[in-house]
Every structure is written in structure tokens, then in C-alpha cells.
Amino acid sequence: QVQLVESGGGLVQAGGSLRLSCAASGSIFSINTMGWYRQAPGKQRELVAVITSGGSTNYADSVKGRFTISRDNAKNTVYLQMNSLKPEDAAVYYCNGRVILTTTPLRTNSFWGQGTQVTVSS
Fold first, then answer.
1. Long-range contact list for 15-18, CB < 8 A, 24+ apart?
2. SS3 113
3. Cβ contact 96:34 at 8 Å
4. Of 2, 10, 69, 78, which alpha carbon lies 20 to 30 A from 18's?
5. Do residues 16 and 87 lie in contact, with contact meaning Cβ atoms separated by under 8 Å?
6. What is the Cα–Cα distance from 71 to 24, expressed in whole angstroms?
């Protein structure tokens, strides 16, 4: 019913920048909170940043001051601008959206993207 597709990952040297995008499509009435998560090998998945439909944001302590989450509600897209990247930022980054579906009655489900790989070289 709903697909989230991430893009923008890749290889970057330490200190560089990347911008991740996640576009949602399908039977979408609206999207509440959207977020970015990441998972490195051997580590648990962690929340990186979240943004509400109203634009309020929260960040993991490890990325504060370096990452910025934003969204374009008209395009059902969330972004993650990553600056001053460090080797410890390397992971598969996943976006998540809490989506209100166009069902009758309306229903809310969470959906995940397929992930995009971010590699940071030393």
C-alpha cells in the first residue's frame, strides 16, 4: 500500500557531507512523524532523527549539530542532511513514516524503506 524509497547514500570521506532522501508513495492520506534510523554491523538499530508533521525535530546526541532532518509534506519526502561525517556514522540508514492510509475508516501504519548504505572512509 505504501512504499518508502531512500536515496542519496554512498561513499564519502571523513568530514564530507551527504544528503539522504526518502520519498513515500501509495495510499497516503497524510504522514505523521517521519524519522531516520541507522544500523551498523554488530550494533542495534538506533534512532538518528525524527520530525513531526508540524516540523518539530529531535536528534540523537551523537549527531546533534551535524545532521539536519527536514521534510516536504507536499512531496511526502523526508531528508537528512549529514555534515562533518565521521567513520562512526557509517551504517545502513532507514527511513520510517507513520502513515495515515486512505482506507475507510482511516488507519495508521508504520512503514520502512529498504535502506541506503552510507560509508565513511578515514
1. 15/84, 15/85, 16/85, 16/120, 17/81, 17/82, 17/83, 17/84, 17/85, 18/82, 18/85, 18/118
2. coil
3. yes
4. 2
5. no
6. 11
Q: How confident is the model at residue 20 (pLDDT cuts 50, 70, 90)?
A: very high
- Of 48, 33, 7, nearest to 111 by C-alpha is 33
pLDDT at 51: 98
Residue the block writes with cell 539536519: 68
Name the residue among 104, 59, 56, 103 with its Cα closest to residue 80: 59
Mean pLDDT, the chain, whole residue set: 96
